Amino acid sequence: MISLEITICIGSSCHLKGSRDVIKILERLISLDHLGDQITLKGSFCMGECSKNGVCLCIDNERFNVTPVEVEPFFNNEILKRLN
What we know:
With 84 residues, the protein is an alpha+beta fold. The chain has helices spanning 12-17, 19-32, 71-83; strands at 4-9, 39-44, 55-59, 62-66. The termini are close together.
């Protein structure tokens, strides 16, 4: 079984950009798809992407920047793709 660790920046800049909302949306999507045993969410302080738009998150050492509005399409296109 494939498992993913997703690290979300919770530093001050990403907090202001909506990291709390990003986490809540990811938790809801993971629960709806019954993926709690395959996806682990972690928080991290500043990941050095403060100048970019959106909240920084990292999957398998690959960094992404997403806004709360972009989380669901990102989940469907990037996260679910990695699990299949």
